[in-house]
Design brief:
The structure holds three protein chains of three kinds. By secondary structure, chain B is mainly α. Helix content of chain B is about 40%, strand content about 5%. Chain B starts with a helix and ends with a helix. Chain C is about 45% helix and about 15% strand. The mean pLDDT of chain C is about 85. Classes of the chains: A mainly alpha, B mainly alpha, C alpha/beta.
């Protein structure tokens, strides 16, 4: 029997913002970062984003059809697109086409829809996809493109068409190979002997304060993040404590630049996926802690974990692992940060 | 002290036996103490089950009341024989006993809206048969006097309907009024059409 | 004025839309032809009518009495004739009808004799509270709690602070605002009366800072009194009783408790005004100020309305465009209730009639998935976790809901207001609260049934024991005389033995039949029969006919017997015989119809 329709309930007003609009704002806010990535690494990221979006929409529609849910209604919330964007930005610009399919498929089908769809996933779908790819295809996932003008005899950046051929080799009779090189965090990890100041000068991967190119990418994502903060898409709590915790850990272990040094706070904040993670991954509401107090703890936990994994783990960057680990902890954090209800003397449990 | 340790080192077998005996005595004493200190009167599980049952005393389960059925459940009878309790009641019993909730056994009746007995008083001949049948003494009256139901005490078991020789008892559902009306939970899926398909699938599975 | 005000958790800032209805002063709505007064207008038991259809009533005459401690009487808002005492559509979302008194007004507006108290300070407090009770005054802010009850806190509670609530934080509503700026003196007077009754030394009138003219008017009126007018920032829902208490005093009302528990009583400004009218002038509560607003009315304004006036009557005076209206709401946009029709009467709690357009209040979209954004928890003035409550409500986990303090939800709607996924959270909470209340009631009822069942079992057991004991005693008694006195009087012994046998036999038959068991057996037999026979319509109809026949036969026999005995049952049996005959005919008709249909 269909439920008896109730009269319209109060409140009769609501803020003119729906989940779809929030998601579209997030998509918009990635644009500076995407533009910067394209500027330094060529058109690969854009190709990835378009391809990942198509795959994500297809996968989402497929699962919705199997689950007999209205496809249009759920696609309109744009959450699949956000997942696609985030994953596409995280993977190397010239990742092969099938890598995107696998990653997006894992994200949308396993990490999101198998848990019940939007709002029910305990883990950030994009990061689940990323980690699965990183563990399964380490070579493809660590072959990051070389940034433009980093080395003197570097070939020119790939244009849109060449980038397309690099990602889809079977589209062209003469496949293009992108020029790749180690990322700053890779280099940093492999260094055991040189003083920081020494190899800062000798390696092309380093810029004025962060990684070369990466400092600009991070600044661009910071800009996008500040835009979202201004638009009140999320609160400042988790990103701020994540960045503070990362900087604090770095400062704690920074000895001024010896060979055993783990890098300056500025270096950690402006290299790898630090800013992207802080404003686009950590702020995912579904898989993070709910209350503001909880988010402070959640963000700080991620910051600490990023530093620890970057410095002592096997993988150069750590945002995805740190986020997934703290996703595990989110329900616990929620449990211990329940607010005191009005009229109750003591905090709950 | 050191003597004892020396002795224990010398005769490890006896030392072990002595220690074990001492442990046995200790735990035995603890258990004995606990059984007195935390002793429970009666059979708490029966009371707990009985508290979950709706107390209509209707006998639809095949037992002469809710308590006997509660006792039967503790002795292993199925938990799905109570139509007035319905699915919610079965769920509560399943939670209490930590077993799987099973659908209501149709043999014992269906879950219906709760009703209250009303005697059409003009037709009552005062035979007292319904009074004898009422398990909760909710019918007032005497021989050759008109009877009436105390509506607030009636459990809606309908045991009084059958014995009435003149068929003057009706089971009426209480009408919703402004005070008893309440909001329903909103539908949780976008269209009613979908709810229907999901339901169909659920039954087929 | 530098009184410290305290912050409350959460809250939202919806667009106020108050200025539209404040352009004109309060106008009188006039006397409609019919006044419909629901018996249940306030919290508590419905009133009981004390008039008959056809009675002429005068303005201010009590037409329904309070029926309990928490209940308020109802008075005729104008003179006229009682036209009906029946069920009518009332101001309730369900669209269910409820008992009402309808008065056909005569237009004379003739007052019943009434007079006020010359000097309330020289009067007995209990007598004054009784006057307020008899005037039918209830909280006019929206909840409608009978005022006299709030004025009689239990003896162990000392009320130190009286708070007069002039916050009116809901958007659109300006009835309190207009009464404050136009009738401040009466509000101040009423506050003094209330403070006198409660013996409270501190009187605070709390007003949001979006009503500077009201604050100025109150401050002027309050000069020379101990009343303090406190201004604080506008935020919804500052006007909730618990929230206002926290803003003004920094104290929180304990969960499940009353403001009186912390020495505070809170009353609405409209209530204070009504108290002045009742004490100084002897006028019962027969009218109130109601805001009529929304974009579907051309001239939004505040009106002084006789209770019982139809909403349509008011809307039509304000340039109503029914075609433009998306829905009709009683109250504000945040907590108001959708009305089933415009033909419902204004009651004591009708502070606003809101006729919005579709563009103003769009039809709610279907809820999207919760993305756990946590905006609801930030907006909740009770510091609840609306999102957790939502999950538990969906899963019908009522114990968890109680653990998470669902009962402390004030249904202010701030959570739904901020929800980006348009989830009707408040509806989830309302439905769950109702379900929990229902379960509690059922539990109480089942406990009661259990006790009664057990008492009955004990009683039957006792009777059984007594019978057994008697039988035993009789048997022994029967034996003794048989042996000892048989020689003396054999005939007597014979008689005694026969009596004992008869008694024993009677007792036996009485014992042999436990009615519960028998009834259960019958119920089972019936069920078994019903199960055994499939839902064959023909069989059912035939059976019905057979049963009717049998019943008829039985009753006829009984009737014959009763007639021959000259029993007083004859008339009764004749009556039931007639009915049974009718029933039999019906059954036969049904069977024939069915057979015809089958064959034809």
């Amino acid at each position: 029997m269909v439920q008896q329709s109730s009269p319209i309930t109060s409140p009769h007003l609501s803020v003119k913002q729906d989940t779809g609009a929030v998601m579209r704002l997030v998509l918009l806010a990635t644009l500076p970062g995407v533009a910067t990535l394209t500027w330094f690494f060529g058109w690969g990221t854009v190709i990835n984003i378009v391809w990942a979006s198509l795959v994500a929409l297809g996968a989402e529609a497929l699962v919705l059809k199997l689950r007999k849910r209205p496809i249009g209604f759920y696609l309109r919330d744009c959450s699949a697109l956000v997942t696609a964007f985030l994953l596409a930005i995280s993977i190397p610009p010239y990742a092969p086409w099938w890598l995107v399919i696998v990653g997006v498929g894992v994200s949308i089908i396993i990490a999101k829809q198998l848990y019940g769809g939007m709002g029910f996933n305990p883990f950030n779908p994009a990061m689940v996809g990323y980690v699965v790819l990183l563990i399964s295809f380490p070579v493809e996932m660590t072959s990051w493109a070389a940034p433009a003008d980093s080395v003197a005899d570097q070939p020119a950046l790939l244009g849109p068409l060449q980038a397309l051929y690099a990602n889809f080799p079977w589209l062209s009779s003469q496949p293009v190979d992108a020029f790749t090189m180690a990322t700053p965090l890779d280099v940093f990890k492999q260094n055991n002997t040189q003083m920081i100041s020494e190899f800062w000068g000798s390696e092309p991967q380093f810029g004025s304060f962060g990684g070369y190119a990466w400092e600009w990418v991070n600044l661009a994502f910071l800009l996008g993040g500040l835009f979202l903060l201004y638009k009140r898409v999320f609160t400042w709590h988790a990103p701020l404590t994540m960045l503070l915790a990362l900087a604090f850990m770095a400062a704690l272990f920074y000895d001024g630049g010896s060979a055993a040094s783990k890098g300056s706070p500025l270096f950690h904040l402006f290299t790898g996926a630090a800013m992207f993670g802080a404003f686009f991954i950590v702020t995912d509401p579904v898989s993070s802690a709910v209350s503001n107090r909880g988010r402070l703890i959640y963000g700080a936990g991620i910051g600490v974990l990023i530093f620890l994994i970057r410095s002592y783990g096997n993988y150069p960057d750590a945002v995805a692992f740190a986020v997934l680990l703290m996703n595990f902890a989110a329900p616990l954090i929620d449990y211990y940060t329940q607010p005191r209800t009005y009229g109750h003397g003591n905090a709950r449990k | 002290m050191s003597h004892m340790l020396d002795w224990a080192a010398q005769y490890p077998f006896f030392a072990a036996v002595i220690v074990l005996v001492m442990l046995c005595a200790l735990f035995g004493a603890l258990l004995g103490f606990a059984s007195i200190k935390f002793a429970v009167e009666g059979n708490p599980l029966v009371d707990q089950i009985n508290a979950v049952l709706p107390q209509t005393q209707c006998g639809q389960c095949g037992y002469p009341g809710c308590k006997p059925y509660a006792e039967a459940i503790t002795n292993g009878d199925a938990i799905n024989k109570c139509p007035p309790g319905g699915e919610a009641g079965i769920q509560a019993l399943a939670d209490l006993l930590d077993v799987e909730a099973i659908p209501l056994d149709a043999e014992h009746g269906e879950e219906n809206v709760t009703t209250v007995a009303y005697i059409r008083e003009a037709e009552c001949i005062g035979c007292t048969k319904c009074i004898q049948a009422c398990p909760v003494d909710a019918i007032l009256g005497a021989a050759k006097m008109m009877h009436t139901v105390i509506a607030s005490e009636c459990t809606g078991c309908d045991l009084c309907v059958e014995p009435c020789p003149v068929d003057c008892i009706d089971m009426l559902a209480e009408a919703t009024n402004v005070q008893s009306w309440s909001w329903q939970l909103p539908a949780s899926t976008p269209t009613s059409h979908l709810i229907a398909t999901d339901r169909g699938r659920g039954q087929a599975a | 004025m530098t009184r410290r005000v305290f912050a409350i958790h959460g809250g939202v800032h919806p667009p106020e839309n108050k200025s539209q209805s404040l352009t004109t002063p309060i106008v009188s709505a006039g006397i409609p032809e019919l006044l419909v007064l629901p018996m249940a207008q306030t919290v508590g038991a419905p009133a009981k009518a004390n008039v008959q259809v056809g009675d002429r009533v005068l303005k201010g005459q009590m037409i329904a009495e309070a029926s309990g401690f928490i209940s308020a009487p109802i008075h005729a808002p104008s003179s006229g004739i009682i036209a009906a005492l029946d069920d009518q559509l009332v101001a309730h979302s369900s669209g269910i009808t409820a008992p009402c008194i309808t008065i056909k007004t005569d237009g004379k507006d003739e007052w019943i004799k009434h007079e006020g108290v010359a000097d309330f300070r020289s009067c007995d407090k209990q007598a004054l509270i009784q006057l307020i009770r008899d005037a039918g005054i209830a909280g006019l802010g929206g909840a409608g709690f009978p005022t006299a009850v709030k004025l009689s806190p239990s003896a162990d509670k000392r009320i130190t602070t009286l708070i007069i609530n002039g916050t009116e934080c809901e958007p659109y509503i300006t009835s309190d605002h207009s009464i404050m700026r136009e009738r401040a003196a009466d509000i101040v007077r009423g506050s003094e009366i209330l403070a006198y009754l409660l013996q409270s030394e501190q009187i605070l009138i709390g007003v949001e800072d979006n009503k500077p003219d009201a604050i100025a008017a109150l401050r002027t009126a309050a000069e020379g009194t101990s009343i303090e007018v406190v201004e604080f920032h506008t935020k919804y829902p500052s006007g909730g009783e618990k929230q206002l208490i926290e803003i003004l005093t920094g104290k929180q009302v304990p969960s499940g408790g009353l403001p009186a528990d912390i020495g505070i009583v809170c009353q609405n400004v409209g209530t204070a005004y009504a108290v002045t009218r009742a004490i100084d002038h002897g006028e019962p509560l027969i009218s109130r100020i109601t805001t009529v607003t929304g974009k579907a009315v051309a001239q939004p304004r505040n009106m002084e309305v006789l209770l019982g006036t139809s909403m349509r009557f008011l809307l039509e005076q304000c340039g109503w465009q029914p075609a433009e209206m998306s829905r009709l709401v009683m109250g504000g946009p945040m907590m108001g209730f959708t009305m089933p029709s415009a033909d419902v009467p204004v009651v004591k709690t009708t502070n606003c009639i809101l006729a919005p357009t579709e563009q103003e209040f769009p039809t709610p979209q279907f809820a999207q998935a919760c993305i756990r954004c946590g905006l609801c928890a930030e907006a909740c003035p009770a510091s609840l976790l609306p999102q957790q409550l939502y999950w538990f409500a969906r899963a019908k986990e009522y114990e968890k809901l109680e653990d998470h303090h669902l009962a402390d939800c004030i249904e202010c709607g701030a959570c739904s207001y901020v929800c980006p996924s348009n989830i009707p959270l408040v509806q989830y909470y309302r439905a769950s609260k109702a379900e929990i209340r229902q379960r509690d009631l059922e539990h109480i009822k089942s406990e009661q049934a259990r006790e009664r069942f057990e008492a009955r079992e004990a009683r039957l057991e006792k009777l059984e024991q007594e019978k057994l004991a008697k039988r035993k005693a009789r048997k022994e008694a029967a034996k003794k005389p048989a042996t000892a006195s048989s020689a003396q009087d054999p005939k007597q012994a014979e008689i005694q033995a026969a009596v004992a046998r008869a008694k024993a036999k009677k007792a036996d038959t009485a014992n042999g039949e436990d009615p519960v068991q028998a009834a259960i057996a019958r119920a089972q037999a019936k069920r078994a029969q019903a199960n055994a026979e499939p839902e064959d319509k023909l069989a059912t109809l035939q059976k019905a006919l057979a049963t009717a026949d049998k019943r008829l036969g039985n009753t006829r026999e009984k009737l014959e017997q009763a007639k021959s005995e000259g029993s007083d049952k004859v008339t009764l049996l004749e009556g039931s015989l007639g009915k049974l005959e009718a029933k039999r005919q019906q059954a036969q008709q049904a069977l024939e119809d069915y057979q015809q249909k089958e064959h034809g």
